[in-house]
């Protein structure tokens, strides 16, 4: 590899990882190696893809030779499990397999970045202290972020490399085939409302509709990850990374309804799968009628994820003081981010 800066992006095909790969390559001074179990479109340009199962320690060790020039690890892989203890065990094992296997020959390793999120503060559990600050005390619940953090701090002992973590909330971007994605799920939901002649109901609770929330653009998150990896002020630090503004669904909802050209409804509390039992068949018909990209609904939409986001009947607010004081000043208007991605999805024929 010609470049002095060589990134290994673990989880390179997910919403965070794929947008990070794109941002690193666009900088021009990074070579990028990506890891995911699936190869996708494979390697091209300054990008080399390794199809590796991070749960398989042998496969991770076998990739060590290809990764000996890696200078920066960006860890954005994630394995979901129903049981939090199992989830913690699995996600620490994957991180360990990368550091102790895949990077065992990377003697020039300088930085390890972990992608976490506001679940660190219990944003998925109920009301928490807001605005959440990076040094707020941990909760008593099991959380794989805590276990990965403890592992990385302990693993760093005796090594020259430094670490940092970022904590986004509702990452917005396009990641087809990885539907842990608010934007593509919402795009599919709105398009189906229009196709079915239904109002654009808010499928969540009244409390959520009226609470304060926040989001993180995937491109902004990628910039923040590169910043934390390169700026020594970020060494061994955690940072909340959000667009920088806050919003309420009740204010955003009419704008989204206008985009889909359907009347805005209110909170129904009805899970989407219940409100739209035949969504898969309706979607296939929509794809044919509008000559959309030939993808099943499941490549874009994850109804349980959307239902989960629309049931947070409490404020989601992260403090951005620490990242701003440390030098990260990027900010985006979240309404414009939502509408911008929806337009891109329409332009690229993912939705009508
Ligand atoms: N999405 C959000 O809105 C959001 C919000 C806040 C925080 N976060 C955090 O951001 C981090 C990244 O999540 P994400 O949303 O980008 O996840 P994602 O879209 O589900 O992507 C996960 C990535 O990990 C890879 N992966 C999973 N299991 C693997 C395995 N055994 N071996 C190799 N690769 C594996 C997947 O590729 P393959 O399946 O092809 O292997 C994929 O590339 C997580 O810590 C998450 O909690 C996400």
UniProtKB/TrEMBL annotation:
Span of domain PRISE-like Rossmann-fold: 68-298
Q: Which domain of life is it from?
A: Bacteria
One of this protein's Pfam families, by short name? PRISE
Q: Which residues cross the membrane?
A: none
Q: What is this protein called?
A: SDR family oxidoreductase
The scientific name of the source species is: Vineibacter terrae
């Amino acid at each position: 590899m010609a470049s002095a800066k060589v990134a290994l992006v673990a989880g390179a095909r997910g919403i965070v990882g794929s947008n990070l790969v794109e941002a690193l390559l666009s900088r021009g001074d990074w070579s990028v190696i990506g890891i995911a179990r699936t190869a996708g479109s494979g390697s091209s340009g300054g990008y080399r893809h390794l199809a590796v199962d991070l749960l398989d320690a042998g496969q991770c060790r076998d990739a060590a030779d290809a990764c000996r020039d890696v200078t920066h690890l960006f860890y954005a892989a994630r394995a979901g499990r129903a049981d939090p203890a199992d989830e913690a065990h699995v996600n620490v094992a994957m991180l360990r397999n990368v550091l102790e296997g895949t990077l065992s020959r990377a003697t020039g390793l300088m930085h390890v970045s972990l992608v976490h999120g506001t679940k660190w503060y219990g944003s998925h559990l109920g009301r928490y202290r807001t605005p959440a600050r990076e040094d707020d005390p941990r909760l008593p619940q099991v959380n794989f972020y805590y276990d990965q953090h403890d592992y990385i701090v302990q693993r760093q002992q005796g090594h020259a490399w430094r670490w940092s973590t970022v904590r986004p909330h509702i990452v917005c971007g396009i990641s087809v085939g990885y539907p842990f994605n608010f934007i593509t799920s919402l795009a599919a939901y709105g398009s189906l409302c229009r196709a079915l002649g239904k109002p654009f109901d808010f499928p969540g609770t009244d409390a959520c509709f009226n609470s304060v929330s926040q989001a993180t653009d995937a491109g902004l998150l990628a910039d923040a990850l590169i910043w934390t990896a390169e700026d020594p002020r970020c060494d061994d630090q955690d940072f909340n990374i959000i667009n920088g503004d806050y919003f309420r669904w009740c204010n955003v909802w009419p704008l989204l309804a206008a985009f889909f050209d359907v009347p805005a409804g209110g909170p129904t509390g009805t899970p989407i799968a219940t409100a739209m039992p035949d969504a898969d068949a309706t979607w296939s018909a929509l794809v044919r009628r509008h000559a959309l990209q030939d993808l099943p609904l499941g490549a874009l939409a994850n109804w349980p994820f959307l239902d989960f986001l629309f049931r947070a009947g409490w404020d989601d607010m992260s403090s951005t003081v620490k990242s701003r004081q440390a030098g990260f000043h990027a900010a985006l208007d979240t309404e414009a981010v939502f509408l911008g991605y929806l337009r891109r999805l329409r332009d690229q024929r993912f939705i009508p």
